[in-house]
Amino acid sequence: MAEGPLVPRQPGEVGRPERPVPGSRNAEQIRSDIQREREELGRSVEALRGRVTELTDWRRQAREHKRELAIGAAVVGFAVGGLMALRRGRRG
What's the half-sphere exposure (Cβ side, CA atoms, 13 Å) at 28? Predict the structure, then answer.
């Protein structure tokens, strides 16, 4: 954050950094802050992109959750079989 007088946090602004007093920064300090924020935003976007790619990789998810998939398939199989048996029982 640029040097200069700071506005203290207001009640309810937990974790929010103190802000410079309006008009206390020169153009170069503002440009520097903007550049720093852009770089931080870029890093955050890249981290988010990596996490989204990881979570949406269905092949990887299937490899990591084989047991759960097998259990789910068995449950669905039993449910479909049970429904078919019930329908047959009503017809007969």
Answer: 1
